[in-house]
Amino acid sequence: MLAGGSWAVTPPAALDTANYEIEVALDPRNHRLQGVEKIRWTNQTSVATDEIYLHLYLNAFASFRTTFMRELDLWALRNQSDPEGDWGWTRVDRITFDDGSDLLPAMEFVRPDDGNMDDFTVARIQLPWVVEPGGVIELELEFEAQLPRIVARTGFVGDFHFVAQWFPKMAVFKGEGGWNNHQYHAMSEYFADFGSYLVTITIPEDWVLGATGIEVRSSPPVAGQRTVVFRAERVHDCLLYTSPSP
């Protein structure tokens, strides 16, 4: 947990590359998440890097002009509804090193695949120093994530929330091959490093919750809300789904 208490985190396995600790609250009325995220990334390659890339997948659902929406057949089997008016997005409000150095001014959106200036699914951050092979960096981010009306395996419908690809996520560094930092395309799958996740989420007290991994703690309800902690080891993503109890 990042504030108001702490839980021990199991040290990552030797092959873990990107580890995440996330504390997030769901606003069910506005279908929005507000969170703080810590990322611990290890350069497992034999090549140094002075930059990193983040995937901001929910920005694929920000308008009809994104690369994903331009490529998607809105009436295909995977998407039976028109999302206009219920768009999704991710916004990074703060990103720092563990020493407090501000990296937000160094963040820029890039479009390595098609140059689409209306696509904001990949962000590049120029680092103030080089991460050598075996080197480790720790980042802390504050972010907001707006879920779209459900489309392509994420979003909301009514009170049901399928929270997928919802947090700023490290791209994969391949060493001599550079960064695998593709934009979010309609015909693609997710590519990510394995790591550990510790996720603390606050939801309405009478809602049910499922998540990647196992539940390790649930707090007593306070002011109509409860907080649940999930842990997952050696996975490359974390999904959440929640809705009112039947």
Number of strands: 17
Q: Ranges with pLDDT <50 over ≥5 residues?
A: 1-13
Using the CA coordinates, give the radius of gyration. 18 Å
Order of secondary-structure elements: EEEHEEEEEEEEEEEEEE
Whole-number average pLDDT?
Answer: 90
User: How much β-strand is present in the residues?
Assistant: 35-45%
SSE-based structural type: mainly beta
Largest sheet: 7 strands, mixed
Strand order of the largest sheet: 4-7-2-1-13-16-15
The geometry reads as globular
Please report the number of helical segments.
1
Distance between the termini: 29 Å
**Helix percentage range:** under 10%
Question: Which helices and strands occur, and which strands form pairs?
Answer:
Blueprint: E1 18-27, E2 32-42, E3 49-55, H1 67-71, E4 89-97, E5 107-109, E6 122-131, E7 136-146, E8 155-157, E9 160-163, E10 169-170, E11 172-173, E12 179-180, E13 195-204, E14 207-211, E15 214-218, E16 225-235, E17 240-244
Parallel strand pairs: 1-13
Antiparallel strand pairs: 1-2, 2-7, 3-6, 3-10, 4-7, 5-6, 8-9, 9-17, 11-12, 13-16, 14-17, 15-16
What does this structure look like?
By secondary structure, this protein is an all-beta fold. Helices cover 2% and strands 45% of the residues. It has 1 helix and 17 strands. It has one helix at residues 67-71, and strands at 18-27, 32-42, 49-55, 89-97, 107-109, 122-131, 136-146, 155-157, 160-163, 169-170, 172-173, 179-180, 195-204, 207-211, 214-218, 225-235, 240-244. The strands form 4 sheets. The chain has a 7-stranded mixed β-sheet with strand order 4-7-2-1-13-16-15, with no helix packed on it. Strand 1 (18-27) and strand 2 form a beta hairpin. The longest helix has 5 residues, at 67-71. The chain is globular and about 50 Å long. The two termini are 29 Å apart.
